[in-house]
Amino acid sequence: MKDNLITIISFAIALSGWVKVFYDHVTSRPKIRGQVFQMMRGQMDDPNHKGKRFEAFIAYLYLVNKRRNTIHILDYELDVKVEGKWVKLGRVYGIHNVKNSFGALAGGNIEIKNFEENLIYRKGKPAEYGQPIHGWIVFVGPEDLHNADVLVYRLTCIDAFRKKHCIDTKKEELGNLFLLQDMADIKMPPPKGL
User: What is the per-residue pLDDT for 183?
Assistant: First the structure.
């Protein structure tokens, strides 16, 4: 009986070492979480085809690494769910070379101060444990998405090791617009009638 108890205890101790190794392996891999904090949509002219337009999705992302190992995010992808199907959007590269003012449907301009410095991919910061990374990024889709009701935004962050981290944000989960104005230093036109 005593030999069986010693064998069981020895086995449990040996197994706990392997459990620790497995636990350390799983928890050491970076895990990006967060949300598409806010989305501004509008139309953008196609520079390659006169008269052709795209629907622009100007996203403000808020991301954090839930694990202890740091990682660099190499690229981003965005899909939108419209009428029960997913539509893949194209990433706009070189947007830091354009102006930082956008026309509002209600009139006036939405001015984003330091837009080019606040593009999330130009910050060059790694995703560290508990340290948020936030900023703008621009995607485009077909012009027929202009009046579409987007139900879910699926952001995919691709890290330096080509691992994909997917984050879904429902339209009702988008962040507070007034908080966005503070975080992103946006100057909005006053509401009509004021």
Answer: 79
